């Protein structure tokens, strides 16, 4: 957004505000000494980039951290180049911060006084960071209240949920990740895609003669999706208290465990150790699984594999997709949603430039450009207005199975990780409970009860990094 549309007093206030209140700064400064080397490396990169050398005349630098590498980084560079060419006020410089623990790297950089203007993340950190006062609310970045209200109407339901903490939007989604069921067509054998759990079990609760193949075996990290489809809530939507051992969540985990029982505990453990449902590549391609729950990114992978097989004169793998089946009383078209989102640290040097770039990428007031970005990266836009653009519709025509995932973004039953101040701990503790139950280490109800107690204790203790 151009400078004349931004009140200078507000922009100055945003820049001078400390990103870490006293208590949070003390926590960040007290992180393990082992991170100091990483801090120095990141601080050096940021210091080197903070100088004016090489900055086009009349432009303000916007330092942008992200986690993408490889081919995806090339897509990021393309968006950055298009934004920089589209205007003459700001110059975005992208800085890949690969590896794990980006949150720790961020807090260490803040403690050292060198932090970016903008971050793109996909971890469960929004509520955790917002509760510590280190994020700039989107309302403060908008030109006025009218623009903020228009933004809220523009975003799809899951995008609003992902970015919101205690009624305030702290993150702007630029892409959504939706899960659905993938079925090998040779396993379906002309049967319709199941819509209910009863229909699903009739199909999936069958053994395959080949010991290296399995019909279906749920991954522990899929409890977030199945618990929601079964009608459960991990945090009570009214009281705000944790409800990890919600009866419907327990029932979902018992159902997931029933597949490990069906295939045999030893077989299930051995199979999960080498071929998880959430593996790096699609488990449908080599036939290790007949059915998987997976994200929309697999569509392009499977379609490309089919094209390669046809070009080589081979029989391609055919597949179908469908929403998560659900039991009586459950939620149709439900699941766990996450995505990529932009965050602006409190006290960022250039919040106006960060906001301008966020809007460009996400497509707010710029739907056509954003549709090109989404089609290039195979990403689901955060707004229906971007989805409706001809470029993205052409992508859906090219990959028709992708359309289901896009349609599911409009479902109110696509729920992200609950926005509590210990969001990361909640996410990891639920996954651990599911793993304990599926592997036979604990009964589902007991594993979830212990997780609930642990999360409540962490909340009462005030959380922590």
From TrEMBL:
The chain crosses the membrane at residues 25-49. Keywords: Membrane, Signal, Transmembrane, Transmembrane helix, Transport. It comes from the Bacteria. InterPro entries: SBP. It comes from Stratiformator vulcanicus. Gene3D superfamilies: Periplasmic binding protein-like II (3.40.190.10). GO terms for biological process: maltodextrin transmembrane transport; maltose transport. Belongs to the bacterial solute-binding protein 1 family. The keyword Magnesium does not apply. GO terms for cellular component: ATP-binding cassette (ABC) transporter complex, substrate-binding subunit-containing. This is Bacterial extracellular solute-binding protein. Pfam families: SBP_bac_8. The keyword Transport applies. GO terms for molecular function: maltose binding.
């Amino acid at each position: 957004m151009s400078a004349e549309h931004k009140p200078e007093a507000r922009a100055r206030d945003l820049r001078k505000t400390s990103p870490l209140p006293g208590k949070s700064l003390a926590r960040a400064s007290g992180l393990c000494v082992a991170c100091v080397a990483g801090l120095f490396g990141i601080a050096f990169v940021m210091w080197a980039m903070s100088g004016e050398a090489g900055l086009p005349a009349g432009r303000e630098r916007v330092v942008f951290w992200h986690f993408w590498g490889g081919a995806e980084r090339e897509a990021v560079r393309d968006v950055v180049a298009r934004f920089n060419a589209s205007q003459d006020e700001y110059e975005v410089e992208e800085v890949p911060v690969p590896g794990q623990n980006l949150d720790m790297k961020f807090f260490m950089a803040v403690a050292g006084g060198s932090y970016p203007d903008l971050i793109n993340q996909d971890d469960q950190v929004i509520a955790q960071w917002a509760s510590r006062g280190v994020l700039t609310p989107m309302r403060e970045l908008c030109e006025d209240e009218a623009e903020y209200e228009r933004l809220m109407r523009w975003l799809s339901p899951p995008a609003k949920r992902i970015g919101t903490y205690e009624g305030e939007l702290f993150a702007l989604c630029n892409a959504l990740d939706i899960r659905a069921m993938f079925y090998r067509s040779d396993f379906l054998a002309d049967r319709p895609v199941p819509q209910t759990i009863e229909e699903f079990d009739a199909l999936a609760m069958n053994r395959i003669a080949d010991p290296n193949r399995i019909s279906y075996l749920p991954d522990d990290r899929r409890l977030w999706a199945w618990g929601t489809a079964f009608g459960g809530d991990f945090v009570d939507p009214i009281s705000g208290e944790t409800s990890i051992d919600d009866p419907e969540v327990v029932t979902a985990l018992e159902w997931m465990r029933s597949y490990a029982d069906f295939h045999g505990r030893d077989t299930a453990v051995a199979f999960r150790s080498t071929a998880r449902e959430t593996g790096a590549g699609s488990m449908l391609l080599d036939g290790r699984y007949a059915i998987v729950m997976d994200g929309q990114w697999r569509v392009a992978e499977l379609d490309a594999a089919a094209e390669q097989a046809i070009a080589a004169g081979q029989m391609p793998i055919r597949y179908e997709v469908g929403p998560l089946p659900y039991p009586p009383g459950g939620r149709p078209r439900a699941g766990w949603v996450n995505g990529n989102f932009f965050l602006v640290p409190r006290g960022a040097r250039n919040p106006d430039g960060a906001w301008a770039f966020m809007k460009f990428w996400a497509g707010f007031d710029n739907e056509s450009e954003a549709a090109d970005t989404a089609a290039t990266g195979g990403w689901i836009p955060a707004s229906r207005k971007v989805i409706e653009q001809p470029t993205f519709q052409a992508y859906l025509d090219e990959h028709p199975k992708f359309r289901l995932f896009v349609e599911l973004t409009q479902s109110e039953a696509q729920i992200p990780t609950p926005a509590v101040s210990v969001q990361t701990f909640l996410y990891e503790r639920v996954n651990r409970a599911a793993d304990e139950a599926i592997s036979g280490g604990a009964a589902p109800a007991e594993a979830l009860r212990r997780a609930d107690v642990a999360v409540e204790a962490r909340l009462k203790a005030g959380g922590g990094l």
